[in-house]
């Protein structure tokens, strides 16, 4: 298939200077981007240059940085972040293509009124917050806003998306998936992961897992782990069974048996206290519901996904939770009726 890597490639004379700084004048950027022309030909990583196919359903999750919890916590205006320009570029492409249905994903701090302002003349906008735990995956946090946009001239959302979602939620929560069915790394996988880390540090490979990966942590991670352990000293067994993100400080991070939201920096370990190791690539993919293990693929009725494991772990931090985006698509399609 074609692989189009950059949304701005389709925008003729895209104002690259808007991405040069750390902040941007959102209103001025909106005027500049909306005046650009959109082309149907774009660089393709698989074939060189290809015509971009038109789609009736467009699923996308533009950069969440402007609306992230870290940025809101700093008290900075969301739309002044430079990545809001990429959101505008995505909106410009939607206005050029006008797909019948759009499913938009972002962090819970996203304000859907931005979509109403830019796309409201052509689309009805309905937003809902969704979490993996709503669909039975109670062992990972990833709250997200999913916005369904229906082209008013072509599609009527005759069935309320919220009603569909509540039905899905009610069914899924009666069939919760136990964590062992998802976090299922074998001893061979763990040995391979440990040896990969050892080789990267110029160490000899092992013939069997060591059972404790603390010696493989970087200095900053050792310091962060010690801070968490000091805070946890004397607490219950339940807390020591938790997971922490060693890329986050105590002031921002937290511990729980529920795996924290994956981020690009999750290449730094998500540390399992009880197992004295971090979650490896295949486990992170499984937590995001990619069918990387036979059990997951059988349940989904698809082949085992080997491609996801060949890519960088950082990509998982940018990915949508497969069950959640699937539910959002189902909600959009279940209620959509073409207008003759």
Runs in which pLDDT lies below 50 for 5 or more consecutive residues are none
The CATH architecture of the largest domain would be: 3-Layer(aba) Sandwich
Task: State the distance separating the first and last CA atoms.
Answer: 32 Å
Strand portion: 15-25%
Beta strands, count: 13
Mean pLDDT: 86
Cα shape? globular
**Spatial order of the strands in the main sheet?**
5-6-8-7
The largest pleated sheet is described as: 4 strands, mixed
Number of helices: 12
Rg, rounded, reads: 22 Å
Order of helices and strands: EHEEEEHHEHEEEHHHHEEEHHHHE
Indicate the structural class.
alpha+beta
The CATH H-level homologous superfamily of the largest domain? Vaccinia Virus protein VP39
Q: How helical, in percent, are the residues? A: 25-40%
Give the domain tally.
2
- The CATH topology of the largest domain is Rossmann fold
CATH class of the largest domain: Alpha Beta
Topology record:
Elements: E1 11-12, H1 26-34, E2 37-38, E3 41-44, E4 48-51, E5 57-60, H2 69-73, H3 84-97, E6 101-107, H4 113-119, E7 123-130, E8 144-151, E9 155-157, H5 161-172, H6 187-200, H7 219-232, H8 237-240, E10 243-245, E11 270-272, E12 277-278, H9 281-287, H10 294-300, H11 314-318, H12 322-335, E13 336-338
Parallel strand pairs: 5-6
Antiparallel strand pairs: 1-2, 3-4, 6-8, 7-8, 9-13, 10-11, 11-12
Helix pairs in contact: 1-3, 5-12
Describe the structure.
The protein has helices at residues 26-34, 69-73, 84-97, 113-119, 161-172, 187-200, 219-232, 237-240, 281-287, 294-300, 314-318, 322-335, and strands spanning 11-12, 37-38, 41-44, 48-51, 57-60, 101-107, 123-130, 144-151, 155-157, 243-245, 270-272, 277-278, 336-338. The protein is of the alpha+beta class and 340 residues long. The chain folds into two domains: 55-177 and 321-338, Vaccinia Virus protein VP39 (Rossmann fold, 3-Layer(aba) Sandwich), CATH 3.40.50; 179-318, no CATH class. The strands form five sheets. A four-stranded mixed β-sheet has the order 5-6-8-7, sandwiched between helices. The longest helix has 14 residues, at 84-97. 33% of the residues are buried.
